Amino acid sequence: MTHGPPTFKYVSMIPLERISQIFHDLTGYRPSEVTLLTSMKRMFEVLEPFEDVIRNQLLKALLYMPMKQTCQ
Asked: Taking CA 48 as the corner, what is the angle to CA 8 and CA 38, rounded to the nearest 5 degrees?
């Protein structure tokens, strides 16, 4: 079973019913599965460029880190 883009795989470890219940407990509003999935998809789309920037900066930092620091 696939859960969509890579970011979804972590969120999908929590069942949608449980996420809906948490929202209900905190706000009194119980979002539907469609609402949750739509929101998750939108968050992925919005955050993807930021994830790319962070990933690239981390990779650059690793390339310029002295070997001694990377082996510890």
From this structure: 45
Provide block-wise average pLDDT over 10 residues at a time, the chain (72 residues). 50 83 95 93 91 91 72 58
Please report how the helices 33-64 and 16-27 are oriented relative to each other, as an axis angle in degrees rounded to 10. 100
Instruction: Give the three-class secondary structure for 30.
Output: coil
Question: How far apart are the C-alpha atoms of 56 and 45, rounded to whole Å?
Answer: 18
**Cα–Cα dist 20/35, whole Å:** 10
Q: Is the dihedral of CA 65, 53, 11, 29 positive or negative?
A: positive
User: Residue 29, Cα to own-chain centre: how many angstroms?
Assistant: 22
